[in-house]
Amino acid sequence: MFLRLLFESFRRQKRRKSIALLAIALGMSITTAMIAVGADVGDKINEDMRRNGGNLIVTPIEDTLDVNIGGVNLKPASEGAFIAESELPKMKGTFWGHNIKGYVPFLSSPENIAAGNRQFKAELIGTYFAQSLHYGTEDFTTGARTVNGWWKVEGNWPPDYAAWPQGQLPEALAGSKLAISAGLTIGDEVEVQGRKLRISGILNTGGAEDQAIVAPLHIVQQVLGEPGKVRRVVVSALTKPEDAFARRNPTTMSPADRDRWYCSPYANSIALQISEAIPNVRVEQIRQVEQNQGRILSRIAGMMLLLTLAALLASGLAVSAAMAATILERRHEVGLMKSLGASNGTVASLFLTEAGLLALAGGVIGFFLGALLAHRIGQTVFGSAITVQPVVLALAIIAALLVTFIGSASAVRKAMQFDPAVVLRGDA
What we know:
Elements: H1 2-12, H2 14-51, E1 56-60, E2 68-69, E3 72-73, E4 83-84, E5 100-115, E6 118-127, E7 131-135, E8 138-142, H3 144-147, E9 152-155, E10 171-175, H4 176-182, E11 189-192, E12 195-204, E13 212-216, H5 217-224, E14 229-230, E15 232-237, H6 255-262, H7 267-277, E16 281-285, H8 287-329, H9 331-339, H10 344-382, H11 391-416, H12 420-425
Parallel strand pairs: 6-13, 10-12
Antiparallel strand pairs: 1-15, 1-16, 2-3, 4-14, 5-6, 5-11, 5-15, 7-8, 9-12, 10-13, 11-12
Helix pairs in contact: 2-8, 2-10, 2-11, 8-11, 10-11
């Protein structure tokens, strides 16, 4: 009899049930999309920010030493402080090495440069463009082309040859502003300390590189007589946004807290691991990048939470209205059930079972609609798909059940209060 009552309820009230089902499905689709996007948005934003430069900078520890005697600053000359290039791949061997997506070493010096009959002074910068490297069992490519996504080149990027082919001039980039002021064009030859370079492209970065000649690191090391040395390294790492725990001093933590801090991908913990892997260096955050990331993520999370709560509230109100109308329409049926001996628990279980079936169906439909919506958001906003984890289906169903039961509670309570005599007499 119970199952027959359920069946008849759905058969005779298709319109009301469809409205309730649609409300639940729409609410769960928004909820599913927001959960999926929220779970993936941190990595998406992190990847986008990493394309716009590094978030850690590595410098020789001597550059940070200030020695004052009698008011005289005896800080070591920066020209004598270098990092061994051969040590840099060790970053990939740290605990969070897989989070280090790339790094860009730099070696620079102001030099007198000759281009035909023209003489001018400009910064000579050596770096990686797309250098292939190997560490342990891993082969990877790193350099400005992958880390500094805003670097734009008109022409061709120079290859990162360690040894250039016989008879071929090494190639370099001319900064866009330097090219204008010095009259440099693609194909021109310049000479630095007796070493000729061919301009293969014009570089536009919006920074100091626009006033410089940028060449492969190994060439600049040879020109400056500093083989295997770099002055600073910009590192791009996927990190967890900073929170209060990340900013704590690890030396004052308990062993358990320090292990948790060390094994979390905070910028600070990755910086510490890099400094442990490479001797005599100081690793610092580029604070603006990390703070912007945390601020953006917190605002997006707040917006998604607000949308999710609004969707759940709207869904709950729609279910409540639909259930109230359903129970009002079926009040004579409820009165008849009670007059035949049905308890309040039986009446409540009937309506709650109907609500539960609607919630299950709405949760499943909403999950698939939400997965499509999340995919669309990912493609439109981030240019890549959002991964919807299977656990989100369980969350959508649980949320649907909670919203439906809460929305139905008032109407079911009213049904339990019906007086059979009054209802069957037609006075209610």
